[in-house]
Amino acid sequence: MVFDIDMIKGVYAALPGKVEATRKMLGRPLTLAEKILYAHLFAPTATPYERGKSYVEFAPDRVAMQDATAQMALLQFMTCGRDKVAVPSTVHCDHLIQAENGAAKDLAAANNTNKEVYDFLSSISDKYGIGFWKPGAGIIHQVVLENYAFPGGMMIGTDSHTPNAGGLGMIAIGVGGADAVDVMAGLPWELKMPKLIGVKLTGKMSGWTSAKDIILKVAGILTVKGGTGCIVEYFGEGADSFSATGKATICNMGAEIGATCSLFGYDEKMGDYLKLTSRADVAAAADAVKEHLRPDAEVYADPAKYYDQVIEINLDELEPYVNGPFTPDLAWPISKFAQAVKENNWPEKLEVALIGSCTNSSYEDISRSASLAQQAIDKGLGMKSEYTITPGSELVRYTIERDGLLNTFAQVGGVVLANACGPCIGQWARHIDDPNRKNSIITSFNRNFAKRNDGLASTHAFVASPEIVTALAIAGSLTFNPLTDTLKNKNGEDVKLDEPKGFELPVKGFAVEDAGYQAPAADGSNVQVIVSPESQRLQLLAPFAAWEGTDLKGLKLLIKAKGKCTTDHISMAGPWLKFRGHLDNISNNMLIGAVNAFNDKTDTVKNELTGEYGAVPATMRAYKAAGLGAVVVGDENYGEGSSREHAAMEPRHLGVRAILVKSFARIHETNLKKQGMLALTFANKEDYDKVQEDDNIDILGLTSFVPGSQLTVVLNHKDGSKDEFAVNHTYNEQQIQWFKAGGALNVIRAEFAKKA
């Protein structure tokens, strides 16, 4: 089945003319990202946009939402006055299934536990013309790649790993739910014109090396914030040499370097994947405009002229990487990893190895891993570590079962989990004897922040390709290098693992009995969406209050966060996922993972009303009850990680007025703006050190709040002294209107009310 083929053909019909007009306007050859971006402007422009500075309004082709973020996005959408979404949109139930006892039992438990939420998402999708993918259908990004992604398209998704679709040449960007509401309502979607990082790939991978190793190396080069505000575009003969799903792996994990998205040019590998996933019509349409789905030849010839930064990687020389622990940009080539483990005193014993997830669950990934599992059987080795497999979709799962790969994993004791996110997002009821014991796990996932997978601060999590993860599971040790080392088998013989072998695509093609898709009602006007007032899982939204028209004075310091503060720290996942549709309940996890700079503790801050220390959410609720606002102060790259807008909505709901940090991650800064919050950065980063625990804080200059102007922060210290300094912001005129109205949704409601 080909979804939205008329829309796709419409994009391709207009593409040549739009590309030629852009080329003339810019007066030079174009990168692929520029072709797609300018072809998706909400309104034509006669003047070029400046990378990294100009705010631009786009018209994405589609929207995708996963169940944890779709709840809040659709609760917002249902208040804006439309009777149907303006662009093709889908909901994917992948986040709420907890991994504990294997696929069948876990899926049954999820359907029971989350029935209220699934019924809500199913009915609201039915009502507003949204495609619904049931629990067990698969992880949003894999399902999108198999069904919806197309070269040259533009998509936004309410999940930070939406860029996965770049593996099929699509600009796909992770956003908060309020951004999705804009697009579903038919309004323009705003983004600062990204800068461009070009990654030239030469040579060809072989042996143990895989596409995952490319992005693990790039993460080491650029760090977790090196791609912020940028599109990373991969090109060169090396880029054309490996599979579309390998490309998707790289684009998926580009989120870990802060990239807006990542992108590959259309090639034969993408065409092959489209055809084998029943989209020959899309491949044929793309072939007809292929020259416009790749960078211009001059860009290939002299990339430094067209990209803001160029990185070159020779795939002939690339070796496998293992990244971590605790951050995805701590990159170790496999030849140096064992030494790093010993020098840093990381636990050498590998307790659990997990393959799959949205990042690495393709047929190619699974078949290469299965070839190693078969070697473990044939060579008398077995598995020394606990080993789990997470298929990315029912299409992949059914196909690998048909081809005997699941049976191979079963023979070595592998546990197949549901087609869902599971341990990758903390939905893992891990079995461990002592949760405080230092231990090591390794995954083929994307993130490895502390507590990310199992909620345990003692767990050292590492990230590698599925092949390396499987090899280390066979050895049971992080110090094993499968490229050079041998293992003793059950007969006492020294044996060496052969290079993994697999198939880019299944020889017999893909197969599935029930992919898990539910089409929306042809007419949703009579569909009832019911939310019980007594529900603990779902809560209808009330509009946030508009700005009062004055400077903000007498704000309390809620917390001064120290070091890494991701959206996981601000709004944890795991057991809290069940409250993603209930703003008040989930607000009880607000900032409970952030480290208080004044005592190095989590979830322990001083209540300035009582002088006592307590939980962050409870302290903020006390301030709110007293009619007081507050400020959160943070460090660098505040809000990195998942796109979850709950990390912005919770502080807004509880009365935090401003977030003041050294720097922001892109999605989180936008989410704060959308919710009517002040997202501010220190003009002088050393001013962070001036913030004291008992400060009362004033924010001045709001009555003349305009783009490009600084605001002033006054710290009124307990001893009567004060510090005053300038702070920066990146608000444009429209975003200032969001602030004044109390949030972007209030502006949308007002606009639709005028049209009614």
TrEMBL record:
Cofactor: [4Fe-4S] cluster
Protein name, as recorded: Aconitate hydratase A
Boundaries of every Aconitase A/isopropylmalate dehydratase small subunit swivel domain copy: 557-684
Gene Ontology MF terms: 4 iron, 4 sulfur cluster binding; aconitate hydratase activity; metal ion binding
Pathway terms, separated by semicolons: Carbohydrate metabolism; tricarboxylic acid cycle; isocitrate from oxaloacetate: step 2/2
One GO cellular component term noted in the UniProt record for this chain: cytosol
EC number from the UniProt entry: 4.2.1.3
Keyword Manganese: no
Record bears the keyword Ribonucleoprotein: no
InterPro entries found in the cross-reference section: Acnase/IPM_dHydase_lsu_aba_1/3, Acoase/IPM_deHydtase_lsu_aba, Aconitase/3IPM_dehydase_swvl, Aconitase/IPM_isomerase, Aconitase_4Fe-4S_BS, Aconitase_4Fe-4S_dom, Aconitase_dom2, Aconitase_mito-like
Domain called Aconitase/3-isopropylmalate dehydratase large subunit alpha/beta/alpha: residue spans: 34-476
GO biological process: tricarboxylic acid cycle
Domain of life the protein comes from: Bacteria
Keywords: Iron, Iron-sulfur, Lyase, Metal-binding, Transit peptide, Tricarboxylic acid cycle
UniProt catalytic activity: citrate = D-threo-isocitrate
Enzyme class: lyase
Family the entry assigns: Belongs to the aconitase/IPM isomerase family.
